[in-house]
Task: structure prediction
Amino acid sequence: MHSDRASIGLRLSATAGLLFLHLPILVVFLYAFTTEEKSYAFPPPGLTTQWFAVAWNRADIWPPLYLSLWVASVSTLLALILGTLVSAAMVQSRFFGRDQISLLILLPIALPGVITGMSLRSAFSIMDIPFSTLTIILGHATFCIVIVYNNAVARFRRLSGGILEASADLGANSFQTFRHVLLPNLGSALLAGGMLAFALSFDEVIVTTFTAGQQSTLPIWMLQELVRPRERPVTNVVAIVVFLATFFPILIAYYLTRDGAETAGSGK
Amino acid sequence: MIPAAAPAILAERGLADRLTAIFWRRPRLLLGILLAPPLIWLGLVYLGSLAALLLQSFYSIDEFSGVVKQEFTLKTYAELFRAQNLDIIIRTLLMSAAVTLGCAIIAFPIAYYAARFAKGRWKAVFYLGVMLPLWSSYLVKVYAWKLILAKEGIITWAADALHLSMVLNAVLSIPGIGGNSLSTSWIGTFLVFVYIWLPYMILPMQAALERVPNSMLEASADLGASRSQTFRTVVFPLALPGIIAGSIFTFSLTMGDYIIPQIVGTSARFIGLAVYQLQGTAGNIPLAAAFAVVPIVIMLLYLTVAKRMGAFDAL
Result:
């Protein structure tokens, strides 16, 4: 029989599924306050806020944090420029090789990170390029392009071609149209794409381990702590920082684009 | 007096107008200018790197000096078929298949409810409820599971509190997939993989389910089908492309991951971990590259089959 109400079983399993997706993150928050630093004992023997101060005073956390912020900012900027350009070209016209180009944009994120990472590593090794901040940015910008592209292309499709023609009819040249018509219309989609690209880059670890030399970004620092833990709650404090640094951009991106048929982040 | 009629075509006002006129006459030029920077970037950085990967995989390493010999050879690929390397590949494939199945089972109720029953505010709740875990920090999520699965962690505590320790110990003593604690067993690795890639399965599944027209479900009910008959003969076949689309992600992502097996699980290696260790500590870039080609080949085969089954229409 068909009815408009979900069965109890379906409702329970859907709710359980959503809880399964969300509850584990809370554990990270809880363990940042535990007094036990040698193990992951549950329930925590006591609660304290001292680890936030300890983390603040640990000198080895700040350089990775700055590096991550710098890498994410530069990669986002590069991705914004390249992603907008390619989306403008893809929307405007149909041309030979169009499908191949859209596949090319998608590949860096469709193939597993270890392949992107290993490819870049092979290329740097063949060309004798030393690892540096630049090599990290090269990798990050490459997989961030698709994020900006997805958001911009969705907005371009919604934009009626009429307003660009109207602008031209009213005597604006291409640059004026871009500045006064296109940019204000694309603005929030680009901002959303930029936010998501920032979140993705700030948190990326797989490609980064292949393209970073001695420097560590915050996720690499975290990975080292996961493999060889010391002062475990400090890792939790950093995890909270990383979580929030990606959480808010995602939320903002959602609210920036939720009115449209397209919503930011439907594909990562 | 009426001034002389203004010319229908405005005079050019400088370089910007001149360029606009050129773009108008030659749309291909504008297209080229727009496409050049991103294509040069992706072509050089990405395709160049993939080519480098392929090139490296045809080199070999000198067993005595450890230096990479830059001559074409298939020796490195032949090494993939050594028992220990073949083990890694098979283990990775089995884990990817298990994770894909696990994701599909857990994802279905969520996707089905979100697609068919959630309205208005709940729709947004479901959307954000899947989107936030999808985008939030990968490492933080993996770390959360290390805390949960630890021997002294929540699961052990909950099992004690509910007097289910026997069950937990029985599960852990299953030969092959059990272990000392959840965080050092295959079950742990599997759970974390399922958790991390679950949203990638939910989204395409939900998209496919949303396209199942209500009228078909009604027709099925009118023709006397029970709920489970409708599900088996109408809903499931129509959702299948979405499930396959989701499985592309879960399969490919599990196959390429090397962080999760390193942090949660036994020390047995997966393809990703093998690539990482070979290029790093072992310094054997050719073999690492050959290993990295394996997921590419498998995914190409997978995509060909998926395309036949119409999975791309569901993306």
